[in-house]
Amino acid sequence: MKQYIESDIRKNYRDLTRFLIAHNMTITTMESATAGQIASLITDTEGSSAVLKGAFITYCNEAKIMQGVPAEILDKYTVYSEEIAAAMAEACARTYDADIGLGVTGTMGNVDPANPDSSVPGQVYFAITIKGHTESYYREIAPQPTRLAYKLAVAEEIYDAAIDSWKEYYRVTDEYYKEICEDLYGEYKETVEAAKTKNVSIKKLMKDQDYWLTELEESSGFDRDLIQEAKEITVKRKIKGEDETSRYTSTVIVVKMDGKWKVLKYEVEWE
Mean pLDDT, to the nearest integer, of 254-266? Predict the structure, then answer.
């Protein structure tokens, strides 16, 4: 039986929230079975207000309809279905104008007395929508000792699916980026115009990057006292098309620990 370890789950969500902060992506949730647990895990990380725009707990069918889930989908597929999870994810993303929407419904340890015909303990449905692209999932959760354990188990399943979904999103986005460039520039060429690396003093790093250092320490046992060196790498790129040219700059801050370099922060700015 799959083991769900609470400390690992909480760490995963801290990492996830830091990822969203770093990429300026916003998120919202509409939760039934987990009753706000996903939103709670996201807000355990400092700075989460920059990414979590809001959240809904829609424990009954009427609440789901009030927040934008079409009643006809409820009638056709029942409240426990991938279709409803998808409608929940899309509805909350639409309401909050968020990049990402999560919808989750299902049954924990007992049959739902309000929906006994479609309720099966341990069956969970959730969906993730990213900028309009929605994927739905179904999972069976083995019996757990407490309702909190059930919620955390579902949270872990959602996290695992989210990572896979984002990998696919960025693969598709990369292809889409190339298509957009072709549409904007026709035949185009992307080149590096300049690359510069400069040393960053440990004192300046501690002052300027305190937020990111603190996030790493809280989420992964990172120890800033072990930093040996720090560098800032700046790369300027040019996209030259048939009739138009654009430029952007990427900046990466890396630190050396135990003889290995690690990325601390990554930013992109278009000119």
Answer: 81
The matching CATH number, chosen from 3.40.50.920, 3.30.70.580, 3.90.950.20, 2.102.10.10, for 6-174 is 3.90.950.20
The model's pTM? 0.64
Q: What are phi and psi of 78, to 5 degrees?
A: 75, 165
Mean pLDDT of 248-270: 81
The closest of 30, 35, 37, 29 to 9, measured between CA atoms, is 37
Average pLDDT of the segment spanning 91-102: 95
Give the whole-angstrom CA distance, residue 150 versus residue 189: 51
Q: What is the dihedral of CA 57, 63, 67, 70, to 10 degrees?
A: 130
Whether the pLDDT of residue 251 is over 90: the answer is no
Residue 268 near residue 249 (C-beta atoms within 8 A): yes
Using CB atoms within 10 Å of the CB of residue 216, give its burial: 0 to 12 exposed, 13 to 18 middle, 19+ buried: buried
Q: Where are the domains positioned within the chain? A: 6-174, 189-270
Q: Could you give the angle at the alpha carbon of 36 between the alpha carbons of 32 and 41, nearest 5°? A: 135
CB burial of 143-166 (b: ≥16 within 10 Å; e: otherwise) equals ebeeeebbbbbbbbbbbebbeebb
DSSP-derived secondary structure for 98-129: -SEEEEEEE--SS--TTSTTT--TTEEEEEEE
Q: Mean pLDDT in the chain?
A: 86
Mean of the pLDDT values across residues 187-195? 77
- Give the residue, 1 or 249, on which the prediction is more confident: 249
Tokens of 99: 């990049």
Q: Which residues contact 24 (CB under 8 A, 6 or more apart)?
A: none
pLDDT at 220: 65
